[in-house]
Each structure stands twice: as structure tokens, then as C-alpha cells.
Amino acid sequence: MAQVRGRCDERFARVRTAFEENFALRDELGAAVTVLVDGEPVVDLWGGWADRARTRPWERDTLVNVWSTTKGPTALCAHILADRGLLDLDAPVASYWPEFAAAGKQNVKVRDLLSHRAGLAGLREPHSLADLYDWELTTSRLAATEPWWEPGTRSGYHALTYGFLVGEVVRRISGDLPGEFLRREVTGPLGIDFTVGLPEKEADRVAELVTTRASPAQAAFFASLPPVVVASLANPVTGAAVANTAAWRAAEIPAANGHGTARAVAALYGILAGRGTLSGRCVLSEDAAERVREGQGSCRDLVLGAGFAHETEIALGVWLSGPNASYGPNPRAVGHDGAGGSCGLADPESGVALGYVMNRMGVGLADDPRKTALVEAVYSSL
Questions:
Q1: Mean pLDDT computed over 124-140
Q2: What is the pTM of this model?
């Protein structure tokens, strides 16, 4: 039985039970969960192991790659610029990034990028890991690429391209890549332990990611998926082995290689739960924080639709909980899952924010049973 450490208010004892059951019943290796209510921590737990060999205990400050849970903080960078009047979400992307107008994309709006409706879920030509680590090459290829579907009409999950698309707009306006912008404007001033990529000096704190092997049936299912799905999820192929490398950690991949603690994830999503404010510091105006939650239309996502039996709705950088209760019973709550299980959640109506991180990756892209158990425990405690 993994040792669970940290603190948990008595009122949220069910969360501690669910967290312990993740180790006992759901094959957890190492993990942490933090819950904030009105900006104050009521749960801050960690436990298990930071490596496959079980030689390094998961510590209070253990970092881990959180995959697509990174997308919420990346979108936050764009919303900060919009809140300052420097970015118009309804303007064409090409007004900030002229090369983007190629291949019929001259009318694609910034909000289409934020809501996975730009039609650029993946590149059409083979794109290697070395290519992915090259910001200029990746963004120039995206600017030249023809959309897979008519932009703005429906969502198709931009698994890796999202961070380059939103991030290049941030760079064109601010002069900074999103990782540096986030550090300067948010994580640095607020002391949040989260980075896009991983500084080499932090390598001793990072957990080793471990993959849960897909079953033959799951592998066969993936092989049968449409080309746009394969382009989004497997061009290039990533995974735990890749994310454990120095090259991945040194790169800027704002859709997928954020590294942080559960406490950091809860704080970043806590900005939205606090309607733009965290720990007394205003990051976004209340109107701007509410704008993040503007749904762009429910649909069967063109990339993730094959894996869900229901329609989903993406807002401007995060997913709405909706009738499917992915982020609790409030349909207006929002959040983002990371491949394999991690999650950030924000519910302004209840003042709740949650961060969950782990290193044993499940086989799904969203709604991992460990995350679901924690979310249900939080809301049953309120």
C-alpha cells in the first residue's frame, strides 16, 4: 500500500479515501491532488513513487509532465492579452500572423484557435519529433497547411498543434513564447511551480512517466481511425518514453509539455474558479474570466468523437463540464484533462479548483477513472 502524505480537511475526507483507493484499486503509481475552495487549500495530498522502479518516493514538490492539462494555462496567456486590449478574439488570426492566411485560412478567427475549430488538428505531412522541437519549422508548416475541415464549423481536437497555434499569436503580440509569457505574467509573480518544458536544473524533481500498455483491441481500434485523427494524435508519435527524454523537456510544446505539481495546476485553474483572481491578485478581469467559459457549440468532436458516446463542448481554451459532468455536476464548470489521467478543474459557482497529476498513464485521453473518482469525491463533500 502506497503511503499517502499531506493534509486534508475533515470535511473532504472522501477525497482522501478516493485518493487512497486510486492506489489500492486503480493501479496508481505516484500521484498528487490539490483542491482549493475560494482560493484556500482544503486538500493537498501526495503519495506513491516517482519512478517505475519504486526507488524514489513522490514528494511534496515532485514535478511531472501533465500533457494537455497544459492547454488551459496556454489559453490563459491569450486571454490576458485580450483583456488588455491587445488581442481581439474575433479578429482573423492573419491580422497578427500574416503568413497564416495561406491555403484559404484568411478568415480563421482567433477564437477558432482557442476552441479547436481551426481545422488544423494535425499536419498533413510527416512531422518528426525533431521537427516538433523546432518552433519556427512547426509554426511555418501550420501557417502553410490546408485545413482538414471548414474552420469554425465544429471542433476537432488539436492535440499537439494547439500550443503552437495559440502560442504563435501570443508571440507575435508580446514577443515572448507562451512559456516565458506565463512565467513573467502569472507563475513568477504568484509563485506557481509550473513551467512549459522543464528547466534542466529541475531534472532531479521530475517524476518518470510510465505507460499502461494498450490492449490489442485498443491498438486495432486506433489503427482504423480516420486520417485526421491519426494526424492529430500520432504525427509525431509521443508517449511516456518520449516525454521522459531531455529533448522533450527542453522543448517548447505549449499543448503538451507543461510540468508542475498538483498544487500548481490547482492554482492555475483556480484563477478561473476565482473569476480572474487568485490569492488577492487579479490576473484577469471578471468579464475576461467569464469569457473563457463561452461555449462554442456542442458537437461530436472530429478527433475525439470516436472515443466518446456523447457530444462535447469546448469553450475558449477549456472544456465545459456540460450534461456529461466531466468536471462535476455544474454544467458551467470547466477544465482540461491530460493524456493518461491528469486534470485541472475550475468551478466559479462553487469556488472549487482541483489539480490532479500522476505518472502512470492510463490509456485514455480524458475522464480517467482515477480523476473521475476524485472529482466525484470533491462534490459529494460540498
A1: 98
A2: 0.97
